[in-house]
Amino acid sequence: xxxxxxxHEEEKSFPAFNNHLEAREYxxxxxxDHFTYKNKKEKGGQEIFSYVLVLNAEAYRSGQEKLARFxxxxxxDFSASFQTIDIYEDGSIYIxx
Length: 97
What we know:
4-stranded antiparallel β-sheet; alpha+beta
């Protein structure tokens, strides 16, 4: 199953989340294994959890493998294969477009 990038209109329909765990569970329930943890960072004293929504598993896997080998990656195919979603401790989200 492949997904499309989350649009601004779709984002407006998401419920308000009270914390990171609530938001993560919402996305995991809908996107299942296509929603994966990437890393954690801190900004302004608040933890931000970055996730990747994999839209095209083959292109994403291939791009990740090439990056790991320090090879050139086809930017268009690879960048279109995923969407990054940041979830803040307080449940607010930022979706990269």
